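Q: Structure tokens for this one, please.
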Amino acid sequence: MNNNKLLRDPNFAWLMSGGVISALGDQFTMIALPWLVLQLTHDPLALGMMVALLGVPRAVLILFGGALVDRHSPKRVLMLTKYVNTVLLGLLAALVLSGRATLPLVTVLAVVLSLASAFSIPAGTSMLPQAIAPQHLASANAMMMAVRQVTMLAGPLLAGLLFALGGDGSAGMQDGHAFGLGLAFAFDAFSFALSAWTLAKVQPLSAEPAAQPHGTAPAESVLRSVGAGLAALWRDLTLRTAFLYWGLCACVTGGVMQVAMPLLASERLHGAAALGLLMGAHGASALAGMALSGIVGKRRLGNLGLTLLVVDGMAGILLMPLGLITSSWQGMLILGAIGVLGGYVQVAVFTWIQQRVAPQMLGRMMSIFMFVFMGLAPLTAAAAGWLASQLTLATLFTGAGLGLSIAALAAWLFTPMAKLADAGAPAASDDTAPSPTN
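A: Here is the predicted structure, written as tokens:
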């Protein structure tokens, strides 16, 4: 099946359209929420604490979210979270537009949004393998990620334009000065409602879990199910090594970036619009990296693992001067280069995990992946916020970049990470559990 035939697949078409809509809305909130907190507090430590508060429940519950996805099906869980997010974002938009947004109210809504994401993330990453034939999964992943990167370009730019025209709250949260900020949340609420409708059209290829017949053994408890997923990860040396390395990288750079980028836009550049430009440049370049990956195929610097480590090392070097920039175009160039590197390997990483893990374990394994990749970063945000109040932005970015480069070098020297191979390619040495197809 080529790309044209894949686009004619009804399941993929509905997933693609819903994913575009939802991802575009997500970009609005990803910029608007930290900016709203910064305008309400004017305190980097408070911003860091908020990011950490959002990350802690998500990091903990995302493991259980994966178990529930495996039990109740990705579609059911994802539909419910979309309805919840529609309501919560609608309330957040109403608070901002009416000038009644306060830090306690915003915190409550943001925490519940974070809780919902603990279930929507593993559900979303597990949905595609259930709707697309296995032999077409790599192509579907590439197309979905490419489209998502388009939204990471268009979303921040459109959000920045909206903030510039409608107001981002820099002049105060009253008298319509935050109108653009409120509309950003309203648009995201609309995107969730519309993507819920498109998701309802998707028909999974395999039957969804049925209720237990009377007299049969009870289903495995959620806690035991989570434990089984963690045990399966631990038995697979290559998978375990990769997850631990990604978790370390998330701790080193993730929290710093979530706090430092809004501060950079606020202190050095031109407010929320500049933040939109920076994030848009990163999204555009990541799309270019994915396109480059599609052109060159599985050409690697030896293998997938070594390629990942080289990419991370180079990204760390590029991060170091980011705190010294004085204009948006400089940041766009740096983030553009980082985006190309990340986009080049992103599709391969997701496809490698999806093809390595058994289908009945995929929801749990993707939830663990998201835990180490997205859940751990906010846990370091509180420390990053405190550091931002004590150090210069130049020192903060230099430390994050240096830490990432050192982590990549240590992984190459002391772990099997450099031996990680693409699915279907022979590894140099692979002391793992049995194949996930067993």
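A few notes: DSSP finds 15 helices and no strands in the chain. The two ends are 26 Å apart (CA to CA).
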